Amino acid sequence: MNKIGILGGTFDPPHNGHLLIANEVLEALELDEIWFLPNQEPPHKSKSGGASNIDRIKMLELATCGHPKFRIEKLELERSGPSYTYETMKLMNEMFPEIDFYFIIGADMVEYLSKWYKIDQLINIVKFVGVNRPDYEEITEFPIINVTVPEMGVSSKLIRDRLKENKTIRYLVPESVQEYIEEKKLYES
Questions:
Q1: Cα(131)–Cα(139) distance, rounded to whole angstroms?
Q2: Which of 111, 150, 180, 189 is most buried, taking the most CB atoms under 10 A from its CB?
Q3: 127-131, strands of its sheet edge to edge
Q4: Rounded Cα–Cα distance for residues 135 and 151 (Å)
């Protein structure tokens, strides 16, 4: 049976922290691949980034193209409404019954798991992988596989804010993503 890691998010924009987490979990758990799962409308946050779905996918393609075990899964973008992990993973298990899925979340989401939609059913259809994040502890009553990754205090919001302030994002995102953002004039105030 294949072991696939799922890294969900808005990826608005994707950054080096996403890539670092994906690669560290891939290696630590000896997974076959990591699938990046951009969501349509995360139920726990408002849509505030600004890039279109097409731009987010293109940036993810640019960010991940150099890694043979990284893939993009567009399932959540093809559905409307909130992107509930339970609904997505139920569908993915039906579509790919030969795969064991490992859903990667940051420590901020580990603390929030008790509030996830249908969490009691969800933990039966996917394994959760928690990665450390500054200022959060990985404490929960739910089964979590913990993976320690080098801390990188970068977020998509930080990048968007820096761009609005005309500050550099060099080394926070892959160079190809930075060039795409500049070319398309994304996140400008």
A1: 11
A2: 180
A3: 70-72, 33-38, 2-9, 99-106, 127-131, 144-147
A4: 11
> CA-CA distances (angstroms) from residue 36 to 4, 46, 84, 101, 110?
10, 20, 15, 12, 19
Give the total residue count for the chain.
189
pLDDT at 50: 81
Q: What is the mean pLDDT of the chain?
A: 91
- Predicted confidence (pLDDT) per residue in 41-64, tens digit: 655 555 555 899 999 999 999 999
Whether 98 contacts 1, CB under 8 Å = yes
Is 34 within 8 Å of 4 (Cβ atoms)? yes
Q: Measure the CA–CA gap between 85 and 115, rounded to whole angstroms.
A: 12
Helix (H, G, I), strand (E, B) or coil at 11: coil
Return d(Cα 127, Cα 59) in angstroms, integer: 27
**145 and 130 in contact (C-beta within 8 Å)?**
yes
The partner residues of 105 in beta bridges, in order of sequence, read 130
- Stretch (H or E) spanning 122: helix 119-122
CATH number of 2-152: 3.40.50.620
Which one-letter amino acid corresponds to residue 132? Answer: N
State which H helix or E strand residue 23 sits in. helix 16-28
